Amino acid sequence: MFTLETPRLLLRDMVLEDAEAFSAYNEDPEYYRYLVQVSTKQSTKEFVKNAIEQNAILPRRHFYLAIVEKESGKVIGDIVLGANKKYPDHMAGVGYGMNPQYWNNGYISEALKVVTEFGHNEMGYHRIDSGADAQNIGSCRTLEKCGYKKEGSLAYVAKVRDGWSEETFQYASIRVDKLK
């Protein structure tokens, strides 16, 4: 099982039992406010099954990880690092989610930093990108805090629960020293 660690967190490959913890926050209106749709227990279970399948493909290009709080042993979130389809040896994307009960504790920043370092240093990606709804100030701040630079914005490219996101900010962490 693949793992990354920080002082407070264990990031590990997802397992089927994680679906229950993910469902608990995926159904929270505060959590899914900026997402395409509300996840059901069944769709969350299917997501985790797919994640396990993707994690098993070698060479490893996708890292679907559960975020576990070490102190409690609870799954509190998830983070995904996935290779770019066109340039899988050079670029990747990252996405994350966390149970709202654990927001504002620096957990996502802690997880994003270690995943970004892994992507650049171990996988050799020179570019790791992400996007955030312009109204999702917390996610935008997290990306910036972790060294991601805002590259621009796109209008009406993300379908969210209540329609279309008017503006999505695009961010990237770029390491010129990793250009191949």
Can you put this structure into words, describing what you see?
The structure is a single chain. 29% of the residues lie in helices and 32% in strands. With 180 residues, the protein is an alpha+beta fold. It has one domain: Gcn5-related N-acetyltransferase (GNAT) (Aminopeptidase, 3-Layer(aba) Sandwich), CATH 3.40.630. The strands form 2 sheets. It has an 8-stranded mixed sheet, sandwiched between helices. A two-stranded antiparallel sheet has the order 8-9. It is globular and about 40 Å long. The model has no long low-confidence stretch (mean pLDDT 92).
Task: List the topology elements.
Elements: E1 3-5, E2 9-13, H1 18-26, H2 29-32, H3 41-56, E3 62-69, E4 75-83, E5 91-98, H4 107-121, E6 127-133, H5 137-145, E7 149-154, E8 159-160, E9 163-164, E10 168-174
Helix pairs in contact: 1-3
Pick out its properties:
single chain; alpha+beta; Aminopeptidase; eight-stranded mixed β-sheet; two-stranded antiparallel sheet; 10 strands; globular
